[in-house]
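Rotation project, supervised by the postdoc (A.L.). Task for the rotation student: set up a whole-complex structure prediction and record inputs and outputs verbatim in this book. Inputs entered:
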Amino acid sequence: MKIKRRDFLKGAAGCGVLAAVGQPTFAEAKKKERLPGALGFLYDSTLCIGCQACMVGCKKANNMPVESSDLLPIWENPRDLSAKTLNVIKKFESGTGLNKDQETDGFAYVKRQCMHCVDPGCVSACPVSAMRKNPDTGVVTYNKDACIGCRYCQIACPFNIPKFQWDSAFPQIVKCQLCSHLLPKGEIAACCSFCPTGASLFGPTNELMAEAKRRQQMEPGKYYDFPVSSIDSGKIFSQKAASYVPQIYGENAVGGTQVLMLAGVPFSKLGLPELPEKSYASTAESIQHTLYKGMIAPIVVLAGLFYFVNRSQRDKD
Amino acid sequence: MSEAKPVGGKVFTGPFLFFLVITLIGIYFLAKRFMFGIGAVTNMNDGFPWGIWITYDVVVGTAFACGGYSMALLVYVFNNGEYHPLVRPALLASMFGYTLAGVSVFIDIGRYWQIYNVFLPWYTNFNSILLEVALCIAAYIAVLWIEFSPAFLEAKTGTKSKVNKLLIFFIALGILLPTMHQSSLGSLMILAGHKLSPLWWSPALPLIFLISAITMGYTVVIFESTLSSFGFKRPLETSILAKLSLVIPILLVIFLVVRFGDLLMRGQLGLAFSGNLQGNMFLLENILHILPLVILASAKNRKSAKMLFLSACFLMFGGLLFRFNTYLIGFDPGAGWHYFPAIGEQFITYAIISAEILLYMVFVKKLPVLPGQEQARA
Amino acid sequence: MRCRESEFDKIPGGVSRRDFLKVCTATAVYMGLPASLGPKIAEAATTAKKRPPVIWLSAQECTGCVETLLRATHPTVEHLILDLISLDYSETLNTGAGHQAEEFRAKSIEENKGKFILVCDGSIPVKDGGIYCKIAGKPVLEILKETAPKAAAVISLGSCASWGGVPSADPNPTGATPVYKILEGTGIPIINIPGCPPNGYNFLSTVLYYVTFKKLPELDDKLRPKFAYGRLIHENCERRPHFDAGRFAEQFGDEGHRNGYCLYKLGCKGPETFNNCSTLRFNDMGTWPVNTGHPCFGCSEEGVGFNIPLHTPAEVKNVTPAAVQTPINVDHGGGMSAGAVALAAGVAGAAVGAGAVAIKKIDQEDKNQD
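Outputs recorded:
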C-alpha cells in the first residue's frame, strides 16, 4: 500500500488530535431518584388468593378485548401478558403443590404488569418520546400519536412488558399504564380497587415501601391488620402474616421500580429476573452523552475532517 | 488512472431476470405485510421484537454498505489518491445499501405513516440512541446521493465535474456520520441488558462495532470489485486490491485485541466454551475473523485474487455473524420465546438484496461508475 | 323384606311401604352409601325388636336444632319418633312434663343402659358450678356427666353442643363448653353435628346409619361425619365460577349482587367452613343463605361463626389451587417451521456453493491474466 509515510503520520496524528479534543470528560448519567409524588402499588404474593379479580377489573377499566387460549373461546384465560392483556396472575408450583407460599411442595401466585421503573429503559429507548414518564406521578404512559412502532422499547424493557399488536395493520404498543385515565378522577388503579384481600395495594411508593418494611418485621403465623385497596382507604383485613423472603423486589432493581413486590418464595421462582442496581438506561445514556453531549465532539471532528478532505483535494490539483 | 465510464451491454440478462423474480415474490409478501400486519408475514413476537429485517437488512446491510465510508477515510483523510478508482463503485454500493436499509426500516416499523415523527422537535428524545441512529442514517443517505451526483451530471453533460467546497463539506460529513451511527448501532444493544449474553453485551459495544464496520468497508470493496469484474467480464483489479488489503489484517488485529481485551476485563471469556449455541456461534464468529487475518498477513496471498476473495467471503460472513449474534442469537428474552424467520419474512429480505443487485447492475451499465477499459476481456 | 302393612295402617295419615322405602333409600344416598342399602335401613328400622331408645338432653340452646328436625319431610319428625326411634325424653317434644318426665327419663336410662343414644343440643355452662343451666334444679353439667357414661353413643347436635356456639362467643360469661370437652377421656363415642342449625338430614342420616350398622359413620378430626362435613362450602358453591373469574358483589344491592356474583367480598365464610349447605341446602326448598344473596357466616365452624365479624373476608382454605391457572413459564409457540428452515438452509447452501464456484473461476481468471 503506497501511502506516503508523511501523509500517513499526518493522518494518524490528525485522528488522534480529533479524538482527544472531541472527547469531553466522561459524562456519567446522574442516577435517577424516586420522584416525591411517585405512585405505584405493593403486590404481596402471600396475600394473593389467585381469584384473578384484578385481571377482570383491569380488562373492564381499560376496555381490553377478551383473550382465550383455548380452541373454543368459552373462557377468558390469557396465558401471559399480550396486546389484549395488561396484567396477569401466574402460579408457581413445585412438588405436590399443596402448601401456599412454600418453595418445596408448595404454590404461590405472582402478578405481572408494567413495573413503572424509576429509570425506565423504554423511556430512554424511545426515539420519539412515545413512552413518557409523568414528571409528578412517575407513571409510564404510552402515546400512540408519537409512536413509530420501532419496538425498541420491547428490547429495552428488562421485564419484557411492552407488547405489540402483531396482527394489526395499524399496530400499537400495549402495556399497563396504572389506570392513568382514572387517577385524575381521584380513583385508583383497577387492579387494586378490585383486589379483595389487599394483595394489590395502591398508594405513594414511599408509603408503600414503609408498609413493605413493616410486613417484613411481622411474626409469621400471627394475625395483623392489612390495608385493602389503597394504603389510605381505611379498609382493613386481618390476616395471618406469612414468612416473607427478605427482599422487597423493586426497591433497587435497575434503579428501582414504583411497583413493589413481596413474596414467600424466592422471586426467581416467580419469574422475576435478578437485576443489577444500575439501570441499563443509565449505562447506555452515559456512553451516549459522553460521546455526543452538546454535539461538541461531532462538530469538532467535522471541522477536522473538512480540513483533511480539503487538503487532500488541494494536493491532487 | 482511467476515467469512469458506463459498462454498457444488455440490461435484461439471465441473472437480472433471476433477481427480478425474487424481488417480485418479495413484493407479494410486502403487500400482505401492509394489508394484514407484520404478524401475517413474520415470526417476530413480543420476545423477539427485532428479527432479520432489523438484523440483516438494517444492521448488516449498512455494515456491508460501509465501502464508501472506508474508502473516503483512506482517500480523503489518509490522502491516498491512488485508490480513487475504487471510490465510485464503493459509493454506489453504499448508496444502494443505505437507501435500501432505510426502506427496510420503513417496512419493519409498525406505524410507518408517522416515521417523520423522528424529525419533529416536540417528539424527539435526545436520550435515545435509536434517534441518533435514525437521524444519522437519514442524513447519510442524503449525503451519499449528493456525493454520487457528479456521476449523474457526468452522464448527462459528458464533462467531468469539478470538486467544489460544497462537495468537500459533504465528503467530510460522509465520514463523520457513519462513524457516529455505525458505533451507535452497537450502543443500541446496551439497553438489552441481561437479555443479551455477556459474550456480546459490553459498554465497549460502540467501539467494537465501529472497528468492525470500517473493516467491513474494505472487505466489501474487495468482494464487490471481484464480483463486478467477474460478472461484467472485466479484468480483475487484483494489483490495486492487493495494496488495499493490507489494511484489513491491521484492523483485524485491533478488532480482536479490543474484543478479547474487553471480554477478559469483564471475565466472560469462559462462556465461549460452554458448548451451547451461543458459545459455538461466538467461536465461529471469531474463527471467521482470525482466518482472513492469517491469510492476508502474507503478502503472497494478498496478490492472489482467489485468496483475496476467499478472505473477503470469510470476513463478510464473520461480520454478518457478529451482528446476528449481537442482535438475535445472543439475545435471550427468557423461557418460552422462540424465533426463526418465516418464509414471507425471508423473502422480503431476499427481495431487498435482489433489488440492490438489480439496481447496481443497471446503474453500472448506464452511468459512469466503473473505471473505463480499452477493451472487454476476451 | 316384607313390611307388615297393618302396622303402618295404624298410624294416622299412614305411609305406604313404597314411600317408606323411598325415605330409607334417600337416606342411604345422603350418606354416600349405595342406594341398594335402602331396604336394609328400612328393615333395621322397622323390624328391630324394639325401636332404639334416644334420650335428648337440652342444655344452653335456643331449640333451633329441634326445630330443624321439624322441617324434615323424609322422614317427618312424627315418623322418626313414632316409628324409627323411641324418643324417651325430650323437653320440647315430651307429652308429659315435670316429675313424671324426669322419672321416665331415669327409668329409660336404667332399662336401656349401654344401648341408648344420648342426643345433646346446646352448650354446657361450667362457670360457677354450672348454675347457668339447670334442669329440674340440677346443673345440666352434672346431668350430662351422669348420663353419658351409660349411653352407647353421644350425638352433639348443633354448633353449641359441638364447639360452644353462640353462648361461647367472647366474653363467654357462662363458660359455655362443648359436650366432647366435658366428656374428654371417658372413651364414649361422640359425634359432632355442628351448624346453627345444622341441616336436619345430617342428624337423621347419622342416626339411621347407627341404627342400621351399629357403628358410627366415618368422622373427621373434629368428630364430624365426613359425608356431611368433609368439604368446604366453597368447593360446592354454585357461585364458585364467579369467584374463580373474579366477579364479586361489592355491596348489597349493587349490580354484582343483583347478578348473583360471588359474595366473598361481603364476607362469605364459605371458603373456610366445612359443611354441606351448598349441596344439601335447607327445608327441601333448595334455599340456603348464599342463594338468597347473603354471605355464609360460618355458623358451623369453630373459630369462624360468632367469632369472625360477618363482613370480614374469609381465609381461603384451598388445599390446592386451580389446575388451570397459568404457570410462570409459558411456551409461546411459533419459531421454526419446516418450510422456513428449508428455505434458509437452501439459500445458505446456494450462497456457499456459488462462492465456491466463484473462487475457482476467479483463480482461473487470475492465472489467465498473469
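Student's summary: The mean pLDDT of chain B is 91.
Supervisor addendum: Chain B touches chain A through 73 residues (CB under 8 Å).
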